[in-house]
Amino acid sequence: MGVDKISFEESGVTAMVFKEAVALTMSGDLTSDDVTKLSVRDVTMRRRLQSSASAAAVIARFTVDAQSIYSANQLFGELSSAVTSGAFNTVLFDRATAAGATALTGSTTRSVSRTSESSEPALSTGAIVGIAIGGAALLVIIIGLVYWIRVKNIRSRSGT
């Protein structure tokens, strides 16, 4: 994205416009409020070392946290397609111009990536500990039951 980190973070309008552009390029009733955990990392120097580009560059990380009839894969696919086709940049430019977010009016987005493939929540530490203790207890009960049955069978054969 062709905007520097300071301009992005200092302007609440810039962040809001970016969130709106993300929400508008995906299906459903998503709003800018559904785009959460937005953070920006400056990669201008790395970009300048890799090429002769002199424009500022940031990587924006965010989470889309919403109830939707669409799967996470579908929403990611739509955002990815919008970025690839240039539709995301058009929406971003239009929203930035309308809101006066001048830091974004010349920005472009080149790619989008997904950091998590799982849409299911991970188990908490407490749940993992509970499962381990429950499994161990079940194993002890099974071993005890097998032992008890064997002892009973041996006693009944010997007549005691």
Structural class estimated from helices and strands: mainly alpha
The fraction of residues in strands falls at: 5-15%
H/E element sequence: HHEHEHHH
Note poorly predicted spans.
none
Q: Reading side by side through the largest sheet, how are the strands ordered?
A: 1-2
Number of strands: 2
Number of helices: 6
* Shape summary: rod-shaped
How many strands, what sense, and barrel or not for the largest sheet? 2 strands, antiparallel
> How many discrete domains?
2
Mean pLDDT: 77
Compute the CA-based radius of gyration.
28 Å
Measured distance between first and last alpha carbons? 85 Å
Provide an overview of this structure.
This protein has helices at about 5-10, 10-25, 45-50, 70-85, 85-100, 125-160; strands at about 35-40, 60-65. The protein has about 160 residues and is mainly alpha-helical. The protein has 2 domains: about 5-100, no CATH class; about 125-160. A two-stranded antiparallel sheet has the order 1-2. The longest helix is centred in the last third of the chain and has 34 residues, at about 125-160. The chain starts with a helix and ends with a helix.
Which key features would you list for this structure?
2 strands, 2 domains, mainly alpha, about 160 residues
Can you summarize this structure?
The chain is mainly alpha-helical and 160 residues long.
Layout of secondary structure:
Elements (H helix, E strand, L loop, with lengths): L4 H6 L1 H13 L10 E8 L1 H7 L7 E7 L7 H14 L1 H13 L25 H34 L2
Antiparallel strand pairs: 1-2
